[in-house]
Predict the 3D structure of the following.
Amino acid sequence: MTYIINGIVQAFWMIVHGDRQVLQIVLLSLGVSGAATALSLLCGIPIGVALGLNKFPGRRFLVSLINTGMGAPPVVVGLVVLLFIWRNGPLGFFHILYTPTAMILAQFIIAMPLVSGFTMAGIQQLDPKLRLQIRALGASRLQMVWILLLEARLPLLAAVMAGFGAVISEVGASMMVGGNINGQTRVMTTAIVGEASKGSFDIAIALSIILMILVYLVNLLLTFIQQRSKNQ
């Protein structure tokens, strides 16, 4: 029980005094997970829209692939990325192993199926007659898609929360491709694992509390935006 209390006290002092190492870890965590989430939105939303609006051969296979990806274990994703970017792998010439770039790539692959799946579900739940009404008013296909995305903005915000939540809290893939190098690739989750493995439970608990506060604040902001959009 003592180390739990010590962990809470340690977290308080880390936050109050702005511990430099913790600040570096937090900023790297936000940078990596934020970049991965942004990339997943850029790629996942168009894929979700395409699957939600169109019927074509192979669609069921792609949807099942997206659904499988939504539940894929992060450690498996990390292993696949590791094999590709290993020095003798197909992408080894990029030399991104044990760098934040490798972590962004792994987290992007984790988040993209979630964003695609939520987007597809959001588009499919709209009334099909809405598309006909939009086209009847003379809107182009691109304009129609934009209007549909505005109508499905609540599921899209849920996609952002799901994607960011999945990558900011994952540890397996980041550990495998990032290496948990102090000052270079150590993020909140890998730091927690590292401190716990050394028996430094007070620091691990402190970092866990800071991580939970961070995740809560981000999701609080997104929830506020979501509820505000819902009431408009």
In short: The chain has one domain: 2-231. The chain has eleven helices and no strands. The two ends are 48 Å apart (CA to CA).
